[in-house]
Amino acid sequence: MNEFPGAPSGPRTGPRLRVLAAMSGGVDSAVAAARAVEAGHEVTGVHLALSANPQSFRTGARGCCTIEDSRDARRAADVIGIPFYVWDLAERFRQDVVEDFIAEYRAGRTPNPCLRCNEKIKFAALLDKALALGFDAVCTGHYATVVTTPDGGRELHRATDLAKDQSYVLGVLDERQLAHALFPLGDTRTTKDEIRAEAERRGLAVAKKPDSHDICFIADGDTQGFLAGHLGSAEGDILDEDGRRVGTHQGAHGFTIGQRKGLRIGHPAADGKPRYVLDISPVENTVTVGPAEALDIRALTAIRPRWCGAAPSGPGSYTAQLRAHGGETPVTAEPDGDELRVSFAEPVRGVAPGQAIVLYDGARVVGSATIAATERSVAQVTPVAPVTSAGG
């Protein structure tokens, strides 16, 4: 007897899959679940409770995982006509995503919690539990595509509509995880308004619900306030490139590489041009600022590479994406044990340790890694706190 009442029963035949649809309470995941049903799959909806103390209502379009979201997901599942459950993964999310986020900022790095959530929660904790219960795949509302190769392997590709592509935050998925992933929205060239119109046609009340933005566990959008609450405040110096004190701050964790606003420097630079954050030293609690051209990066070293298929056997030419909504830039990349060494064809700016670099071969996602150190065009290697494998 199956211990989980929502798990499928009976033998599976033909292309019909047993699908667990992760339903956040938003429009994309609801339409994705509906399309999975329409494709003939046996679908069960599940909402992930990721907060130990969920709020009743979100703040405008910020945050997610609220009581309101779980109710919206349940209502959508009822309309679609599929079983629905809520799974409590709050403790796992706290350990693998929230605490990792805080630890990275404490070390002077800039993490991407969405990648960590996809890696550790949606396609690790959730997928592993789904497979153990007899499901074949996890379905989400991400805009990306999974392509089956002639030899039966799986590849992750960009969404057909590049304007909505979310493959960057999925670049942590390996081939095994891709073999059990469904992204029903990825191969559709439609605008978000058309997705909302489809939801309305299907009778889904979330059709007009605003998208969530920013970091889901910081519902008010005040990242600096969140970090200050966990890491505290400690006055430190803002230095120029020559080590001269040009201002003070209340915590190095409140800054990111490439930041221009909010520096509160007492006097202008000698050349009168804006200054940007060049380096963050959590040990000395200092922030170093300088001109925009000092942000130019010509190479980097990344760690913890994760390959969406077989790892490259040597150096290769690719394009790289350095942030979720950034463009691509040509690179040469070579795996070196547990590291990835990347050289840029042209200097790039605003690259911070802790960020993810995702490599592409055309539309195919080759893999991703976490940036550990950068090499500037006009200086030596940027000093950064050592990146450990904690939580990785």
Enumerate the strands of the largest sheet in spatial order, edge to edge or round the barrel. Answer: 12-15-14-13-16-17
What is the percentage of strand-forming residues? 25-35%
Tally of separate helices: 7
Low-pLDDT segments: 1-14, 380-392
Give the topology string: H per helix, E per strand. Answer: EHEHEHHEEEHEHHEEEEEEEEEE
Helix fraction bin: 10-25%
Explain how this protein is built.
The chain is an alpha/beta fold and 392 residues long. 22% of the residues lie in helices and 28% in strands. It contains 7 helices and 17 strands. Helix 1 links the parallel strand 1 and strand 2. It starts with 17 loop residues before the first strand and ends in a 16-residue tail after the last strand. 42% of the residues are buried.
Give a brief rundown of this model:
Helix 3 runs antiparallel to helix 4.
Task: Break the fold down into its secondary structure elements and pairings.
Blueprint (H helix, E strand, L loop, with lengths): L17 E5 L4 H12 L3 E8 L17 H14 L3 E5 L1 H17 L6 H20 L4 E3 L4 E5 L5 E5 L16 H4 L2 E2 L9 H10 L21 H9 L4 E4 L5 E5 L26 E6 L4 E5 L6 E11 L8 E6 L6 E9 L2 E10 L7 E6 L2 E13 L16
Parallel strand pairs: 1-2, 1-4, 2-3, 4-7, 8-11
Antiparallel strand pairs: 5-6, 6-17, 8-9, 10-11, 12-15, 12-17, 13-14, 13-16, 14-15, 16-17
